[in-house]
């Protein structure tokens, strides 16, 4: 009797569920999916108070995974009628599931698209919540892609607001494109934390690109809030070098070659010797005075393993400047080598510790313990033994000094999260792997060299090959050929030198070339591709931003589907987690697509601040936004176009005159290919030497007047002025004839950048305005 009773209850229950599934499908699906999602994910909603309490509105979200819609439905208080690609809902179950939530299906034909847009408009008018993924496809890199115009068509004819949202946490799941594929992979974490950020409602006539900006700002906020999830790089390099095993991990032009575990053993041994023989327990900041090399990599990693702050010092500046940097952050010891010191004319007012001295202090016990640490102790236990589990995301990792183009260098304090975010962003966008070989020709005192050619190259799997002189084209060509280099990071100036001096077969394995620091001349794209069969792409960054902000995705690395991911002439879209906006210099309001203004950046890459300069830090960073000093515009696709620097504009007769534009036209007139923003390290190369610099001095009538500093020109000034007029430059942009001054050399910094202060001081002296 009891068995029949239980069976009856089961049958009634199943019939009830079936009835609910037929007549109340939404209730049924929620009852099934909610506990399932709660088992797999932890959810959090931020900004729910921003949702309108009544009426219809359009929810606009990023798109990272196949189940974004289901997850957002789980998190939102009201049902959301998503407009989705109907081709993904062809099966009976999928159609039933879509119908359960009144999903609006749209197929790739004009009639279906029009029906879907009309249904969405009617839903908003009737007070429903409509959802849209305006990117039109799932991101392949974690970057927010361009928004399709369909959003504007849905909003026509009524006043329903737009609510921007950002779903954070799905990247890395099996439903995202992390790892270069969907589904067939292990998720990188279990019961991951998902956070839905809900922004304030926007008027429905807000331009699409500004709606996209609001979604991206939520993205930057999410990444900043969750910066504790970025890996501790010292722990990550242990895993990476162990994984590499005996395979080549580090090589340099001095003949050093180290496998992964050998490099790790050396780093642990150095850490022990430094703790015992050199560094006191309370000594935090340690100077490093070495060129890009295997030794410099080992030193920086050893300091990170010991939870010290490395400060790679600029060996191209004068002794007073370098000693100012040392005093500024209280460096007691500087790690270098006798061999390197003998080649530079620098006097350091601090305790110098050379590699040769340290090598003599390494004992057999140091080597044995380092071997055990590098090879035998489980990584999790080793992490605790080294205290790496106590490293916080906001702990300082390095101090990088600015180039000092406008005065004495400033110490930029970069945290663990700052550098780790850059490494993570490179992993998503550029997808470095175990088969890559990165040419490390950028100095580690430069933030690009430190973050990318040091940490990204050593943590993400590639082998790093280092050389101390980026203009030594012949040696770089030999290294590229010997080790099969695949990735080159440099500047346009370097590329011109390589075109002339490196044989095409030496770069035959190269598949990725990213340039920055200078504006890439249009002719150089073709010239490099014609020579080496690979087209360079541009990126952008500043020391204060760790340094990477944006990059065009190289063709060889592009996983793009239905969206462009590079625009030549731009510096790319912001990297994952980074948000860019352009604001009016007068009002501070965000500008629409294509309009020039001040470029601001937010995200986990924004520096901690300038060392010992609180007021300057507060001026540079306001409400989380770093003011770059660059004039730019962002196009409708989200790509950044740099058009000048604020410090390189003059206000003449009430109008802003860009120095760079005038320089470019003068360079065209004299038929000199070198950009005036070129790295001055090429100053020893007459063919690439900086020829022209435009600066300004005070003027009693118009506020300022342009001054042109130039080396010897074959063309007469009158002919140049005629060319400027023929090019259509406004009269205010054309310098007077008596404003041209021939000089022996354009003022340059030791790093090779234009010395803006030096150029201005020289102009003041030559014009008698000083």
UniProtKB/TrEMBL annotation:
Gene3D superfamilies: 3.30.300.30, N-terminal domain of ligase-like. InterPro entries: AMP-bd_C_sf, AMP-binding_CS, AMP-dep_synth/lig_dom, ANL_N_sf, Plipid/glycerol_acylTrfase. It comes from Stieleria maiorica. The keyword Transit peptide does not apply. CDD domains: LPLAT_AGPAT-like. This is Bifunctional protein Aas. Residues 57-170 form the Phospholipid/glycerol acyltransferase domain. The lineage of its organism: Bacteria, Pseudomonadati, Planctomycetota, Planctomycetia, Pirellulales. Keywords: Ligase, Membrane, Transmembrane, Transmembrane helix. PROSITE patterns: AMP_BINDING (PS00455). The gene is aas. Belongs to the ATP-dependent AMP-binding enzyme family. The keyword Ligase applies. Signal peptide: none annotated.
């Amino acid at each position: 009797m009891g068995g029949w009773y239980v069976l009856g209850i089961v049958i009634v229950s199943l019939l009830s569920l079936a009835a609910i599934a037929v007549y109340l499908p939404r209730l049924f699906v929620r009852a099934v999916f909610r506990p399932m999602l709660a088992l797999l994910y932890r959810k959090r909603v931020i900004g729910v108070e921003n949702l309108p309490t009544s009426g219809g509105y359009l929810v606009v979200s990023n798109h990272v995974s196949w189940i974004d819609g289901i997850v957002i439905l789980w998190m939102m208080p009201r049902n959301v009628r998503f407009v989705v690609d109907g081709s993904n809902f062809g099966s009976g179950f999928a159609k039933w599931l879509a119908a359960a939530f009144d999903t609006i299906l749209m197929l790739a034909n004009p009639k279906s698209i029009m029906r879907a847009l009309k249904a969405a408009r009617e839903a908003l008018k009737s007070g429903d919540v409509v959802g849209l993924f305006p990117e039109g496809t799932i991101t392949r890199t974690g970057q927010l892609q361009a928004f399709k115009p369909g959003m504007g068509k849905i909003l026509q004819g009524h006043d329903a607001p737009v609510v921007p949202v950002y779903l954070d946490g799905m990247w890395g799941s099996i439903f995202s494109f992390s790892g270069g594929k969907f589904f067939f992979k292990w998720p990188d974490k279990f019961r991951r934390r998902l956070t839905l950020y809900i922004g304030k409602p926007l008027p429905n006539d807000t331009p699409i690109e500004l709606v996209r900006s609001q979604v991206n700002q939520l993205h930057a906020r999410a990444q900043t809030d969750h910066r504790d999830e970025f890996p501790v790089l010292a722990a990550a390099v242990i895993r990476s070098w162990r994984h590499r095993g005996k395979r080549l991990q580090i090589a340099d032009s001095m003949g050093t070659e180290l496998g992964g575990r050998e490099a790790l053993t050396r780093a642990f041994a150095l850490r022990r010797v430094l703790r015992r023989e050199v560094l006191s327990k309370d000594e935090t900041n340690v100077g490093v005075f070495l060129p890009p090399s295997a030794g410099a990599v080992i030193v920086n990693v050893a300091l990170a393993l010991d939870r010290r702050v490395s400060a790679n010092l600029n060996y191209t500046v004068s002794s007073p400047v370098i000693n100012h940097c040392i005093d500024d952050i209280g460096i007691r010891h500087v790690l270098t080598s006798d061999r390197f010191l003998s080649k530079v004319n620098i006097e350091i007012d601090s305790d110098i510790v050379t590699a040769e001295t340290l090598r003599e202090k390494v004992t057999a016990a140091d080597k044995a313990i380092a071997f055990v640490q590098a090879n035998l102790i489980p990584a999790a236990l080793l992490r605790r033994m080294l205290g790496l589990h106590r490293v916080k995301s906001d702990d300082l990792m390095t101090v990088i000094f600015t180039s000092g183009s406008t005065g004495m260098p400033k110490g930029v304090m970069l945290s663990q999260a700052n550098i780790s975010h850059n490494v993570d962003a490179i992993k998503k966008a550029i997808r470095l792997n175990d088969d890559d070989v990165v040419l490390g020709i950028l100095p580690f005192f430069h933030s690009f060299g430190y973050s990318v050619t040091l940490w990204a190259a050593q943590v993400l799997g590639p082998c790093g090959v280092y050389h101390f002189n980026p203009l030594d084209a012949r040696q770089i060509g030999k290294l590229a050929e010997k080790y099969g280099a695949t990735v080159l990071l440099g500047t346009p100036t370097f590329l011109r030198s390589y075109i002339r001096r490196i044989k095409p077969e030496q770069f035959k394995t190269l598949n990725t070339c990213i340039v920055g620091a200078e504006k890439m001349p249009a002719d150089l794209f073709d010239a490099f591709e014609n020579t080496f069969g690979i087209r360079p792409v541009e990126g952008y960054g500043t020391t204060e931003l760790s340094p990477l902000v944006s990059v065009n995705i190289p063709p060889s690395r592009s996983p793009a589907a239905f969206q462009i991911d590079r625009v030549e002439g731009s510096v790319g879209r912001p990297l994952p987690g980074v948000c860019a906006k352009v604001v009016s210099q007068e009002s501070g309001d965000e500008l629409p697509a294509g309009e020039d203004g001040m470029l601001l950046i937010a995200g986990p890459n924004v520096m901690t601040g300038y060392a010992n300069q609180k007021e300057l830090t507060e001026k540079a960073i306001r409400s989380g936004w770093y003011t770059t000093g660059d004039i730019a515009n962002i196009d409708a696709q989200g790509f950044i176009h740099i058009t000048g620097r604020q410090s390189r504009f003059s206000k003449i007769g009430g109008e802003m005159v860009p120095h760079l534009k005038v320089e470019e036209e003068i360079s065209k007139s004299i038929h000199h290919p070198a950009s005036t923003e070129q790295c001055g390290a090429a100053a020893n190369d007459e063919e690439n030497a900086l020829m022209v610099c435009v600066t300004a001095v005070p003027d009693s009538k118009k506020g300022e007047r342009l001054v042109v500093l130039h080396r010897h020109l074959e063309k007469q000034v009158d002919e140049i002025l005629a060319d400027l007029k023929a090019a259509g430059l406004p009269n205010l942009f054309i310098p007077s004839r008596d404003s041209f001054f021939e000089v022996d050399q354009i003022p340059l910094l030791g790093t090779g950048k234009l010395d803006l202060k030096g150029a201005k001081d020289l102009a003041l002296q030559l014009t008698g305005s000083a």
